[in-house]
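Blinded run. Sample ID left blank on purpose so nobody reads anything into the name before looking at the predicted structure. Input follows.
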Amino acid sequence: MTESAERAPKKSNGGGTARRSAARLAAVQALYQIDHSGEPGNQVLEEFLRFRLGDSFDTEQDVAPYKNLFSEIVAGVSEQEPGIDEIISATLSNKWTFERVEIILRAILRAGVYELQACKDTPARVVITEYVDIAHAFYDGQEPGMVNGMLDRISRNLRPGEFSDAKPAPDPAEGQPTDEGPADQGLAESGVAQDDGQQDPDQQDPESEDGAVGS
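Blinded prediction complete.
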């Protein structure tokens, strides 16, 4: 199997939660393409908005991602990548470097860290669950657990007030995957567990569905 992020979500209709999940999935795909191809982030963002998430998107069959959330994540990661990568690197086991982490895992972690930093209206546990679900779409092994452990630890540093009574997650497994491992599991749309007792932000007033987020 070869590493790829070019997988389409299962076809289904969906409400606000599904559309936010689809936006995060599309953002991870775009971040993968930026890292893998070396294309400028704004170019890939425009490509996705015009050709992959544009007017031809079949909303009768697929979950249409919220374009604003998609754009915010991709643009935000592109602008803040050095700082985000430092946070991720500091959380890795001493036996691993950031460069050894698979490209798709880097994309998942970057998107998750960006949301934890910038999207304070979305509870940290919701962000973690969303990106663990995306990791499950690509991997059957230890990688989703690694994403869970790393984002949990990062979130406790970035948002300590949300974890005042909770125990930290275990250290991420030392056997973290490298660029040589497979990452081409079929991309399936997953439901998001919201069991932390906090209000689901997807139940709030829906955001504007179409325009891209400005700088």
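Unblinding after everyone has recorded impressions. The chain has one domain: 16-179.
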